[in-house]
């Protein structure tokens, strides 16, 4: 196994690769590769037994040329400054490729939420919200969920912000519960964009989705929903994994039942729809029609990429392939459809949530899903146009060509400000 890639360096390499196909000056390129600012703070929080614990937390505001900074907040022991910088950069190019009026940001706390009670997590989250308060706002920076955060944490942040500001501002954060100003369809939105990208990709590549075999790495919000929506298209989910291991059934299993089993027991192991258990690495190298990495960065590195047998990869996770893996898979003609499009449903429906919050007028789930489908299909078409009209090596570079041009246009149209 090669040395773990630094996600921030991976992002920078992706931007460099695509900029070579565009007329971008070296100084503008520096802007495109580095965050505008990063908050790094220590949260001192009282635990249930009275002792104080300190948690390192970050918020990176990468680029705001196209609108307010936008992006999730992650709770994970491996959160680092460089990871948050990378994730915030990917948000810039994600919001640009689907052409919604946002920049990119991301935050995180170094914490394993499984080790803390709900009241401790609430105090940690409210403490982070207090630190974030000067930076965030409905027109400034709008956080959202990511790994290990969801409606509960978003509601705590909204409540803290509104109390400190003595106002109502539901659009300060997205991914909220419905009763707190959330949007229909947000919970499913990330997986839905992965399904839509896979559907469009199979169509473009003249592949049949009916009966296609699918393996999903990471069976959380993004992965499990991508799995059952792809199953609804006629595909056969044959393997899935979470942090405790992978399950497999060559004849396929019911993706919704697997999700319900994990929700009930906390893991996929012993799910009776599976015929065998396997390692996470074995799942990633299964001979399937479609592989959906939906866990964390660097799931597939250059070494493992040589063993990947899937025909098509659609990335639900952010940054699951290292640049070396990309090179190997490009050489091996494996079609990779990138994260910045394939998981953009989350931020797109976050945008719809924010629009609804600003208008105090709420949409039906059908309207949300129809608008999301329109956005993803149009973005897919833009990506294919860029792929076919530039001599780019793969779909990722094509997506960045589209996205970078939009960010550069917005920056240049802004004129000079010292
Ligand atoms: N939740 C959202 O709206 C969005 C999430 N994403 C990305 O999707 C990915 C997953 O996020 P969520 O589904 O929200 O998180 P989640 O916390 O709901 O689920 C993550 C899943 O990955 C599993 N996992 C962790 N390490 C693993 C490993 N080494 N092998 C296999 N499984 C492993 C966990 O057990 C869990 O089932 C992340 O890269 C996130 O940034 C991207 C866009 C939006
Ligand atoms: O919903 C959002 O605003 C951002 C979701 C997110 O963090 C992501 O797309 O990686």
Automatic annotation (TrEMBL):
GO biological process: L-glutamate catabolic process
Superkingdom to which the source organism belongs: Archaea
SMART domains membership: ELFV_dehydrog
SUPFAM superfamilies on file: Aminoacid dehydrogenase-like, N-terminal domain, NAD(P)-binding Rossmann-fold domains
Site (Important for catalysis) residue list: 146
Record Pfam families: ELFV_dehydrog, ELFV_dehydrog_N
Keywords (A to Z) from UniProt: NAD, Nucleotide-binding, Oxidoreductase
Domain Glutamate/phenylalanine/leucine/valine/L-tryptophan dehydrogenase C-terminal: 183-415
Active site: 106 (proton donor)
InterPro entries: Aminoacid_DH-like_N_sf, Glu/Leu/Phe/Val/Trp_DH, Glu/Leu/Phe/Val/Trp_DH_C, Glu/Leu/Phe/Val/Trp_DH_dimer, Glu/Leu/Phe/Val_DH_AS, Glu_DH, NAD(P)-bd_dom_sf, NAD_bind_Glu_DH
Residues reported in the UniProt entry to bind NAD(+): 190, 221
Annotated signal sequence range: none
Residues annotated for substrate binding in this entry: 70, 94, 350
Single annotated GO MF: glutamate dehydrogenase (NAD+) activity
Keyword Nucleotide-binding applies: yes
Keyword Ligase: no
Binding partners and assembly: Homohexamer.
Record-stated family: Belongs to the Glu/Leu/Phe/Val dehydrogenases family.
Stated name of the protein: Glutamate dehydrogenase
């Amino acid at each position: 196994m090669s040395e773990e890639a630094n996600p921030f360096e991976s992002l920078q390499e992706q931007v460099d690769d695509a900029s070579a196909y565009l007329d971008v000056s070296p100084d503008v390129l520096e802007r495109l590769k580095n965050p505008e600012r990063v908050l790094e703070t220590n949260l001192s929080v009282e635990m249930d037994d009275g002792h104080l614990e300190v948690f390192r937390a970050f918020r990176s505001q990468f680029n705001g040329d196209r609108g307010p900074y936008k992006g999730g907040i992650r709770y994970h022991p491996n959160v680092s400054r460089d990871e948050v910088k990378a994730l915030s950069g990917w948000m810039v190019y994600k919001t640009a490729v689907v052409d919604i009026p946002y920049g990119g940001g991301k935050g995180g706390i170094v914490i394993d939420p499984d080790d803390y009670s709900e009241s401790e997590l609430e105090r940690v989250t409210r403490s982070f919200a207090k630190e974030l308060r000067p930076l965030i706002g409905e027109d400034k920076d709008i956080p959202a969920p990511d790994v290990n955060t969801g409606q509960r944490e978003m509601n705590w942040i909204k409540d803290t912000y509104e109390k400190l500001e003595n106002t109502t501002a539901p659009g300060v954060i997205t991914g909220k519960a419905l009763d707190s100003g959330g949007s229909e369809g947000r919970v499913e939105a990330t997986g839905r964009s992965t399904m839509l990208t896979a559907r469009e990709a199979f169509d473009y590549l003249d592949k049949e989705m009916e009966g296609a075999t699918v393996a999903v790495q990471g069976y959380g919000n993004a992965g499990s929903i991508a799995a059952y929506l792809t199953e609804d298209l006629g595909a056969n989910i044959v393997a899935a994994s979470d942090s405790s291991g992978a399950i497999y059934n060559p004849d396929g299993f019911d993706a919704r039942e697997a999700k319900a089993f994990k929700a009930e027991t906390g893991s996929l192991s012993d799910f009776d729809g599976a015929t065998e258990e396997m390692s996470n690495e074995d799942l990633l190298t299964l001979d399937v029609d479609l592989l959906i990495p939906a866990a964390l960065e660097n799931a597939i590195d250059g070494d493992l990429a040589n063993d990947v047998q899937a025909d098509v990869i659609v990335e639900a996770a952010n940054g699951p392939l290292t640049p070396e893996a990309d090179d190997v898979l490009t050489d091996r003609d494996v079609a990779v459809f990138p994260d910045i499009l394939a998981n953009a449903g989350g931020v797109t429906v976050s945008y719809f949530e924010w629009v609804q919050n600003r208008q105090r007028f709420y949409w039906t789930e059908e309207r949300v899903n129809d608008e999301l489908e329109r956005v993803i299909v149009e973005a897919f078409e833009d990506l294919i146009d860029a792929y076919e009209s530039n001599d780019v090596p793969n779909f990722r570079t094509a997506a960045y060509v589209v996205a970078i041009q939009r960010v550069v246009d917005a920056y240049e149209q802004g004129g000079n400000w010292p």
